[in-house]
Amino acid sequence: MNRDTRPVGWVKAAPKAFESFPASVRDRVNTAFTIAAEGGKADIAKPLRGFEPGVLEIAVRYRTDAWRVVYVTEMAGRLWVIHAFRKKSKTGIGTPKAEIDPVRGRLARLRKETMR
Question: Residue 5 — φ and ψ, nearest 5°?
Answer without folding.
Answer: -105, 125
